[in-house]
Design brief:
The protein is an all-alpha fold. Helix content is 80%, strand content 0%. The protein has three helices and no strands. It has helices at residues 2-20, 34-54, 57-86.
Length: 87
């Protein structure tokens, strides 16, 4: 149970790191450096390996892809909603 949760947390944080290191992101004033991009890639691979170790292969890949889609879809939407509330 804890290994699955740790793999999910690592994957979410890695997806956030990749998103925030992109130049077209709207969350920060400036994007994070290339180090965070490569750290995010390595974190995604580590998160996938943790999930594969703790779960069956297809379930682990499905959870990993769902996490990536969820983070990369809702983080920009949340930031747009936050900006519209400030005005």
């Amino acid at each position: 149970m804890t290994l699955k949760l740790f793999g999910i947390i690592v994957s979410v944080l890695s997806c956030m790191s990749i998103y925030l290191s992109h130049p077209n992101q709207i969350s920060l004033q400036t994007s994070l450096g290339q180090f965070f991009y490569y750290a995010g890639i390595m974190g995604l691979l580590c998160g996938l390996s943790l999930l594969v170790y703790a779960l069956p292969l297809l379930v682990a890949i499905l959870i990993w892809l769902a996490i990536a889609i969820l983070v990369w879809s809702f983080v920009p939407l949340l930031m747009l909603m936050k900006r519209s509330n400030l005005k």
